[in-house]
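> @MW can you paste both from yesterday?
MW: sure, first one:
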Amino acid sequence: MRKHFGKLVVGILALSMTAALLTGCSSKKKDSSKWVIGTNAEFPPFEYISKADGVIDNYAGIDMELIKLIAEDNDKTVTINNMEFDSLIISLNNKQVDACIAGMTVTDERKEEVDFSTPYYVATQVMIVNEGSDIEKATDMKDKTIAVVQGYTGETVVKELGYEYEAFKKGTEAIEELKNKKCDVVVIDSATAAAYLNENKGLAIVEDKDAFSSEEYAIAVKKGDKETLDAINKSIEKFKEDGTIDKLAEKYAEAGSTAE
């Protein structure tokens, strides 16, 4: 009898320990009052690091101020996870972040991996050149040294044109390459190009609407995360209707990037 009783006690203790472990795990549920947001803070005026005008810690820009407003509109607080652009969707699908806002263009390829919010901004690609350049349209880039930012739409556009290029991790690196005459042109989003020109003399923007079509920026969430998507969409619609997003675009277009 003692042997059986001893086994019973051991069994009960084992069950109790398992229950305690499960209870401990369940008590570590994600804080529903917080959003962890993924970004690539190398894309002024949408997101950049600045001690001067940070809106979420040292992060500033159209996207940073917008996501802060969206979070507040949903009674959330925000933590920023800054990473390389190519890592954003991976981190989203690994549940490391709740959403990603990074001047991310809506594409059919990305739609297969994530769900996108209502678009909040329309942009196009442009070419940044040194003043006096003979590049006047996209076809003039043939046989030129082209710089792009890895993972950005500019890389896709240049690739589709069939031109060779060098991809950089950061837009600032590509711009420095151009200023130092190590490349002839940088292909990047229009608003970001304008921000770089505000801070770098001797550069010019070349547009080619026939070659570069418009694109829409949206916030990405994990596929099937309807709760987060609905909350974000409701706020985006609100801020589009009341002019908040337009005001943010104007504010940062005038200020440029004050990244430090």
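MW: second:
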Amino acid sequence: MKQIKNQTTLKRVSDNFISLFILQFINYLIPLFLIPYLIHILGIDGFGIYSFILAIIMYGVQMSDYGFELSATYHISLNSKNQERLNEIFSSVLTIKVIIALIYLITIILLSFFIDKLYLYQDLIFIASGALLGHIIFPLWFFQGVEKMRYIMYLNGFAKLIFLLSIFIFVKEESDLYLLLLLNSITTIAIGITALYLAIKRFNIELSFQPWERLIFYLKDGWYIFTSKFAVEFYTTANIIMLGLFATPLVIGYYAVSIKIIHAVGSLLDPLTRAVYPYLVSVYQKSNDDFISKNKKLSIVIFAIMLPVALLVGYFSESILGIITGKEVNPLNVEILQVFSISLAIYLYGSQFTNMLVTIKATKFLNKILFITAGLNVIFAPILIYFFGVMGMVWLSIFLAFFLMISKGYYIYISI
């Protein structure tokens, strides 16, 4: 009986890993192949503006996610057989996400009247904001909690295919940047609505207005994860926004291309940690030692995979950029990617250690260390940009990534 149960668990985790892997491939690698076309049509400057606008929207996406991919997934996985609790969690999370997104959009609109760069691209930001709506109603956290990622894989694959085809058909010249952002908004909204409908119908979810005390409970429950994500964005997505305020579109373009390559390669294997997260939550409920043992094995697997990947990306940086951009590669762009490739060696430890800290209820420490890291970034990034240009920010990002990984790892070591 135990052997059958282990086989069932392995099959479920493997199925979710494969689904998440394909989903990550669709989300990161396929758009990466689109970069040569976009740079050819928009130019590297136009691509820089596009990346700047998209970074503003994605920051809103991260804000409205509120860390629910961990906190809500945790509650869904523990209550997957309790229909009443599923209805409550689903309705509460969706309500909170809508409220946060509205606050974010209102804040951006107000800031655009005081910050020249935001005012300059005000129309483009408005067009792109549809993507934020699509992400709000996309219940990825729910499907991950019930361990049914195959649905999302099919939906996302279809939506991304339509998006890519529509770009090749309609985006033909530099002035079509607005059309590119509009197409992104439309496809994101379409998949969001479809995924929401599927979750409601397939799992008999009944949406309802939840009392304030329920919303406050889930807000408090995910608070440290949310503020941790907020802090993380200060030295990831927010760095592109910061460059957009201080640097030229050309430099933003170089930086954005390298970041997209790193995120595409690193995130491709991120499903390894995400797929096992619900399983490891249940393991921790039963055995502390087993939880430690399985995470040690996961750490070894991560290192064995990611170190060679980091070395390969660093060594072939110029060739990779040549293929991606389809243009003669600028030495500065090569240097940016080579330095960023170092972070690939520890890329997956970020999500693994975060998952462990959430599981052992150490989100308060996670919050504290991430805010320290964000504070260091906010203080030193403008200074380093002033004295060393974009490379100052790149090296700072590498230093902070290692600082964060070591801090998380040490806390886990002394706590478990």
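> thanks! The first helix runs from residue 2 to 65.
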